Amino acid sequence: xxxxxxxxxxxxxxxxxxxxxxxxxxxxxxxxxxxxxxxxxxxxxxxxxxxxxxxxxxxxxxxxxxxxxxxxxxxxxxxxxxxxxxxxxxxxxxxxxxxxxxxxxxxxxxxxxxxxxxxxxxxxxxxxxxxxxxxxxxxxxxxxxxxxxxxxxxxxxxxxxxxxxxxxxxxxxxxxxxxxxxxxxxxxxxxxxxxxxxxxxxxxxxxxxxxxxxxxxxxxxxxxxxxxxxxxxxxxxxxxxxxxxxxxxxxxxxxxxxxxxxxxxxxxxxxxxxxxxxxxxxxxxx
Length: 286
Fold this sequence. Notes:
Blueprint: H1 2-12, H2 30-33, H3 42-47, H4 51-62, H5 66-69, H6 95-99, H7 111-114, H8 122-140, H9 147-157, H10 159-162, H11 170-183, H12 191-206, H13 215-236, H14 246-250, H15 264-281
Organism: Pieris macdunnoughi
Region (Disordered): 1-26
InterPro entries: ZNHIT2 (IPR039646)
């Protein structure tokens, strides 16, 4: 909502011919009216608008696409430093700054403390299946991930986590996610989005550079651990129904009522599996 209000305010600031017959000078401007308003409360924001502003808000909403209103999210895994035979020492190196924006890699138990059994070769390919599902869902929600909905969607398209499926070939691991997306009742997608997902999976798996190729994969798994942990916590909390104002009645809030209930025992197992994957990667050279 704030994005649209900011857009309205910017348009109002554009130079116009002065209307001498207007009595708008007596009207308090929008920023002043919003000073003591809780900006997280859409109903309070709505009540502070004039009728003309409400009509303008509705008009902008009806005439715009999501991309016009909400800024397009840029994934954190797109940076790649190509190896050069000769490095230009005078060229600024902002790699550290870029990598600091990635999800923080979690500390997990040593792999030797989790198992004495040598992992099957398919473990790396199973991780690719997870990366594909992760990259698709995070992009699908434009980087604004609601934990319960995100976990529900990830389990819906990721067989490695949902049903402990094993994959022998990377291409099959990625295409399994593509097919699940197309078959899903929770997700609407197209071939262009799936092609982006395939490329994202490649970017995540290759990492920011040759010397640190596992960095993005570890960051993604760490982010997933957080998402699943937050979903587990949020699923235990029962939200109380609150009275709805004019805005909430006019623009119903997106909620999780359409989603199937999360199986918390499965969520806990997935967290353990993600930690297992991350611990395994710590034993790998690259």
